[in-house]
Structure formats: structure tokens, C-alpha cells
Amino acid sequence: MKTPKTAPEVKRPWEISADEIAAILAGSHANPFAALGVHQAGDGFAARCFIPGAEEVTAMTLDGTAVGDLKQLHPDGFFAGPVKLTKQQPVRYRARRGDAEWAVTDPYSFGPVLGPMDDYYVREGSHLRLFDKMGAHWIKHEGAQGIHFAVWAPNAQRVSVVGDFNNWDGRRHVMRFRSGAGIWEIFAPDVPTGVPYKFEIRGRDGVLLPLKADPFARRSELRPKTASVTAPELLQDWDDEAHLKHWRETDKRRQPISIYEVHAGSWQLRQDGTFLSWDELANTLIPYVVDMGFTHIEFLPITEHPYDPSWGYQTTGLYAPSARFGEPEGFARFVNGCHKVGIGVILDWVPAHFPTDEHGLGWFDGTALYEHEDPRKGFHPDWNTAIYNFGRTEVLSYLVNNALYWAEKFHLDGLRVDAVASMLYLDYSRKHGEWIPNEYGGNENLEAVRFLQDMNTRIYAEHPGVMTIAEESTSWPKVSQPVHEGGLGFGFKWNMGFMHDTLSYMKREPVHRQFHHNELTFGLLYAYSENFVLPLSHDEVVHGKGSLIAKMPGDDWQKFANLRAYYAFMWGYPGKKLLFMGQEFAQWSEWSEATSLDWNLLQYRMHEGMRRLVRDLNFTYRSKPALHARDCEGEGFEWLIADDQENSVFAWLRKAPGQKPVAVITNFTPVYRENYAIRLPLEGRWREVLNTDADIYGGSGKGNGGRVQAVNAGGTIAATITLPPLATIMLEPET
To answer: What's this model's pTM, rounded to 2 decimal places?
Structure first.
């Protein structure tokens, strides 16, 4: 007689295999959305969830209606069971353990937020609103409020978002993979704003990587912490339409632009040595800049960065204003405050490289994602940083969208692009054999060229009031020419040659300057090859270079006189102006990011005199169209004296159609010269509109009594003038 076989246990439709449960508990399930949440089960629906610590779970609709008690299938917190629903919909669970009870809204019961068109535009590289789709956004989705997370990690085996809201447990919010775009996303209901988070990524080899900050994070923790922070959408009541309209409708090349370059962390500090907030900076910096007559503030990078001495140039969060100065809303208020009083704000922007901190972009999904895998293309020997892979569509989109983001969300007036030369040349700071030629065998980085052209084309099309400025230290042609004419498309370029040559000249003892006269005349041979900004930037007052006043030769009086003459020479020279903070009052010490400027120096006559001079130079430059309206066009300049090297005297005329000309005359020796003859274009009296040797600036008070007379002698119009020692004067006709 045969023993009857035991009938096999029938698997209920809401159950899943032990292997799948084990994979969920281990965080290794290939697609948890297929296992967790609400699913069709036979003729009805079932819910499955993973809630660590729970002993009992009841499923509910979002309005709180109980639809079924779930059965514990694993003591670590896996539950499943039928639910009384008529359709697949989001659910919430009431979890209990002993006397404790808490609610959990199931992220796996929600559908995706991104759609097929997002995938298409991402693949194509034409998505211009990635900053509204990627990162972390507080939204309402399918009846629930929460945070939508999205991150690009195409080669990851698994990506989870972790944070305080899930005890940093990577098994709790494993993201949905959109294979068409390489993007992982999840809607995390009930997650509030203001909480830290990172991405937990398992590489294609299954190895768990260091937790990564969000590349699109709009807010970050204060260093030394490195997490991203969920943030609400930026809300700012903008009062700047008149300001934006002005810059949209004007030719920036013909406008006065005088830029005050600022490191936000050291312009001023609180008494306890901590950083000022954006609101505190607004109360002090904005009125100061208005009073000084500058037209723009240019900030060294204020995007999030881990290391203070990098000054922001090694940023790990291109979309997040640094937490050093408060929340992003504070920066928006600062920009709005600037615009209300007519001050533009320019951001120093760094697409040239990024640091290799483990929480940053480096080997983001276990592969060289944002950078090149080959260090000959992907590593900067100068800064020990990684180089963006400009040939990758998604990387270009990330950077171009970032430029658009600052212009749209924060109403920025400009982007000064750092280290452009390092982007343009494949052999930048590299020896033979340490770089890979382009497809034509040359050293030009054609991918970087296309990126810069695309970035400039996009930003000028979307935000015509914005200007882009290149820090480009070589003679690369057409940096500030339109893309359709073969240029890179920048609005302006820093004139590094002017800075180098003029400082080289000014450091020399006046007795030797006659032998280096060409250092000041040579620049006019190329002054109109680009739309130039003349920069006396932070780079000239760090790393042992000393301050500008310390570079000047002679005793203290001569140092101040030299610098005053130099400033006026520069403000009268064709090109827009840029001066780094502290140099307007001749700070003696070299700049340090760790300390405040030496504001106490303003109690001394010579330093206060220097500040007054820079203030008057700004207002003179702005009020005299001849000094700015043809800054970038050769018709606005005419040499009056270019060859008096024996006396180290330079003179020229600045002109603009329909405007009074301005004569700029500089004596770069300490010799007081009377009866110096100079040709002028018009007869009659000329008014001395500025004299750097004036007593109010700390000078000796020598000059022309405020007037000179130009007379016609034999068909030549000339004036006999007095040249103060180590001084620049400016003259304009009275009528």
C-alpha cells in the first residue's frame, strides 16, 4: 500500500519568494518596485512593504481608511497581504511595535515623476530645465506631499537615497532606474525640506561606494559636513525689472562697467570671527559698493565647497550657494537688494575642474562618469583635480543647465568663467607624452570649445541681459566674438596682458622706467582685438605676491603716489575695470581668506585718500561717456604722447561720438614738470577733472589750478601744463 503524497502548499497571490524577500532585506533586489508597493494579486490587489522595527502593519489609503492588515513574512520587517482596493493606488501603513505606533507612506506605491520626454531630451542633450527635474524637489504627487529625488548614475547596479528620514538605511528608498536616460528616481512621500541626504550607490561590480552628495543639490550642509539638504523651491519677490530691462536692452560694451571683486568670506567678519550672512553682507557691502561707485560686484565662487583655502574654486556643489553664508534664499535677497540700487552681481563660475573629494563627482557611479577615465585627459596636474568630460552629452547638459540656473533662479548679471585656457588646451601644464592630441593631431580641446560655444549661445539666447566673461590667459582668437563668426561667444575677456605688463612696469624704480616704455604702449596694439576687462584681481595679491601697494617702489609717499597714478592710468585706459577688495584703500598685507580686510587703515590719511580716489575714478568713468562708451572700439582712443620715454610720460585722448573728449596724462617719475607742452584737439580752456596728486587723495597738491589753456599756434593746438610728480591728470574742454 503506497503512502499518499502531501499536497504542496499553495502560494497565496500576495506572497513572493523567500529569495526576493532576502534580496529586499539585503538591499540587492534588482527592481524593488516590482516587489514592493501595491500590485495586482489574482482578482484583487495586494500590498507589500519593508518597515524595519515593525511587528504589525495595517495598510490604509492616503485619507486614512484601513484596507487590510498585512502578515509578517520576515521578522526583520517584511509584510504582505491582500488589501481592499478597487485600483492600484498609493497607500500608507500604520506600523506598531509594542506601545509605539507610527505612519509610513509607501514610496513604492507611487508611479514615476519623470516621463519619456524627459528621457528623450536628456539623451539628446537639449533639456534646458534639468534643474527642475534632477536633484531633490518638494512636490505634490498622486495626492501626497514629499520629495522627488533624481540622479544620473547609468552604470550603477543600485542607487538609494539615504538621510535622516530613513535612518540612512539604503534598503528603504531604493530608486527606480530609467534605463533610457541612465537616471534613477524616487518620490519619497512625507520627507520634509531642510533634512540632509546623500545617495548610496552600489557600482556595477556590486561594491558599495562612499556616500555621494547630490550633483544637483540646491542646498548643502555647512562644512565639514558634506550632505546635501532638501530645499523648497526658491521663492523671492523680485523688485528688479528696471535693472534687468536696462541690461537686456543696452550694448554692454558701451556701458560703464567697474567691478568690485569680493571674497564673501573675508570682506568682513563678525567680531567672533565667523562669516557674515547674506543679509548682514547686504546691510554693509551693498551700501559700500554704491558709495564707491562700482557698477558690479563679482564674487569669488560662492557655490558649495569643502575647503576654505580653495576660495571656492574647488566646488562640489555647483547648484548650491555655500552654507557658510546661510540659506539660498539669503543670496537671492542679496541679489535683489543689489539690483534695487543698480548694482549687478557676477558669479565666478568654475566648469574647468572639480575636486576629487569622495562625496563629490569623482567616479560617481563607480565609473569615470563626469570625468575622463584616462588621466591624460581627466586630471589637472596643477590643482590635483578632475577635468569634466566635455565630450559627454550629459556632462555638457549638467554644466549648461547650471549656467542657466543661476541666471534664471538668482537673476545673476554675469558669469566670469575661470581657467578657460586650461579648458582650451589639451597640453595645458603637461609635458610631451602626458596628453592626447585631438582628432586632427592638435592640442586644441575641441570638445571644450564646443561646450563653451554652446554655453554662451544658450545663455545669451535665454537671458540676453547676462554677460559672460572669460579668464583666458593666452592669445586664443575670438574669445569674445560671436559663435556664428567662429568665436567662443563670450561677452568679454580678461586682459591678462595689460595686468602683467603694467604691473611689471610699475614695480620698477622710476629711473629705470624709460627703458621699459613699451610695456605700457604695447597693449594698444591689441586693445581692440577682444572686448576686454582690465583685471587687478585676487590672483595678484596672494601666494607671496604681496598687495598692490607693496609692489610699488620707493618710500611710502612714492608707493602711494605710484599706485594712485596707476589706478587713474587704468581707469583712463580702454576696457572695463576690475579691482579686488582691499586694494581700493591700499591694504598693505597680502590677502588671506582667513581674516577680514584691514578696515582700520581707513583712519589714516593716505589710505582714506586712496579710497576717495578710487571712488572719484569710478564716478568720473561713469559720468564721462568718452571714458567708457567706446571702451571696446578703436575710434575711442587717440595717442597724444606715446614716445616720451625719457620722461616716462604717456598721454592719450578718449572719445565718444557727440561727447566731450577726455585727455589722460600720466607722469610716471617723481619729477615735477612745469611748462610741459601737449597737443590737444580743441582750443580754449580745459578743466582738470581729476588729479591724483590732489591733497584730498594724499598727494602733494601740485597741479594746474583746475584749468589749462589750449591755443592755436601755427595750426597746431597745444597747451602748456604742469605735470605733478608720479601722477595722472584728466582734462576735458569746458565747452
So the answer is: 0.94
